[in-house]
Specification:
Blueprint: H1 2-11, H2 14-31, H3 38-65, H4 91-106, H5 115-139, H6 141-149
Helix pairs in contact: 2-4, 2-5, 3-4, 4-5
Pfam families: PEMT (PF04191)
Transmembrane segments: 12-31, 43-65, 93-120
GO cellular component, one term: endomembrane system
């Protein structure tokens, strides 16, 4: 049982949650197909997925260049506040949201739009709050000052 809990702790990562929510949207699109957004939905959705992937890559690169951990639940060595992190404390999670929204549009899974705010709440509850606790404990007033000038999402 202890090994299972350890495995779940290491497998439960934001991309797994993104895949789960995307799978739900895809399933909804297959069970209840809709032709609502047409070509515009495909173009906008593809743009959102592409932008999400680009933001995710750029934000991850900033962590790598700062030589700090990008893995949730691990204590970072550096507080990254430059680049995309000047605009959002969580650009990678914001990118996840853009990707989910883009896939929903591409698949014409408009009833699945309800999944987007649910995904945000899951990510906040499962990852962001814990990460903020770690950052506050490690960086103290520097993290508080960062939070005062940069919003959690946008």
């Amino acid at each position: 049982m202890k090994r299972l809990i350890h495995l779940i702790h290491h497998v439960e990562l934001p991309p797994v949650w993104l895949a789960l929510f995307a799978a739900l949207a895809w399933l909804q699109a297959r069970l209840f197909p809709m032709e609502v957004t047409g070509r515009a939905g495909d173009v906008i959705g593809t743009g959102l997925v592409g932008a999400g992937l680009a933001v995710m890559g750029w934000a991850a690169l900033q962590f790598l260049l700062a030589r700090t951990s990008l893995i949730p639940r691990m204590r970072p060595d550096t507080l990254v506040t430059t680049g995309l992190y000047r605009f959002s404390r969580n650009p990678i999670y914001l990118a996840d949201v853009a990707i989910l929204l883009g896939l929903i549009l591409i698949w014409d899974a408009l009833p699945s739009l309800i999944l987007v705010p649910l995904f945000v709440k899951v990510i906040e509850a499962r990852f962001i709050r814990h990460e903020e606790t770690l950052l506050r404990a490690h960086f103290g007033p520097a993290f508080d000052a960062y939070c005062a000038r940069v919003r959690r999402w946008l």
